[in-house]
Amino acid sequence: MSDSVESGPRLTEALNAHAGHYLSAGRLIEKGETPYQSYEVWDTPQFGRLFRLDGYFMTSEGDEFFYHENLIHVPCITQDAPARALIIGGGDGGSADELFKHPSMTRVALVELDEKVVDIARQHLPAVHNGALDDPRLDLHIADGLRYVRETAPAAGERFDLIVLDLTDPIGPAEALYTEAFFTDCKRLLSHQGALSLHLGAPIFQPERVADLMDRLLAVFTIVRPHFHYIPLYGSLWGMACASDHIDPLALSADEIERRIAERQLRQLQYYNGDTHRAAFAQPNYLRQCLNPQR
Fold this sequence. Notes:
Layout: E1 10-14, E2 20-24, E3 27-33, E4 38-44, E5 48-53, E6 56-60, H1 64-78, E7 84-89, H2 94-99, E8 107-112, H3 115-124, H4 126-129, E9 138-142, H5 145-155, E10 160-166, H6 180-187, E11 190-201, H7 207-218, E12 223-231, E13 236-244, H8 254-263, H9 274-279, H10 285-291
Parallel strand pairs: 7-8, 7-10, 8-9, 10-11
Antiparallel strand pairs: 1-2, 3-4, 4-5, 5-6, 11-13, 12-13
Family: Belongs to the spermidine/spermine synthase family.
Pathway: Amine and polyamine biosynthesis; spermidine biosynthesis; spermidine from putrescine: step 1/1
EC number: 2.5.1.16
């Protein structure tokens, strides 16, 4: 049996209508409302500094690497010298931090709708972004990601090696950024070796959502590789996907991945390596059924 649970206030989150999880709350640092959402910053016993939006756990300084390293390095290590990336969302700066570890990266455009998210990250989450929000290679836009992809970037002739959808769940305002039409718009901005990287949700608790997103990606891209990781803050196995017409993260051996990590001098990786890369694509039978329900 595990140790007894500490009494006191708790932070809870529903994974679906029938299940959820909680954390000991610790100390509230800041909370408020923006024109788009409510936010909270907590100092927690388990994860240290923790950030929530609309009651959903977003990131924490104690476990952010489980999410950000896999969202970024799975596609980037598959590419030859990725140089230009676009992040939609990601105002905490964690994805930008991982992108800047690649020495070939010359520019990252980060498009965050809610300026308060960036302000909170700068003030309260330095261990998540590690200064990436002030890196001279970062091109920060406080703007609508949908409009940026459909209007601003095409008008400027932009092309990206990687587009990262580092978004809240596909409900409410973010839902339009998970459609087949938006994936198609993103594809038009990709370079020849370009890829789209995004999270899919929890296959155990949200199987229909994961399957639907996979179907939409497969309608747009030739190669769609889902990969799965346990994210402690999210309380579950979590799905991500790398989608492209040209690169395949399954084509690399663990040894080749380790060679590229060493060649690029990717230091301070707390999760990602050649073995975890390969293992993340292995699918237990229940996951195969979730992703291919016709079987």
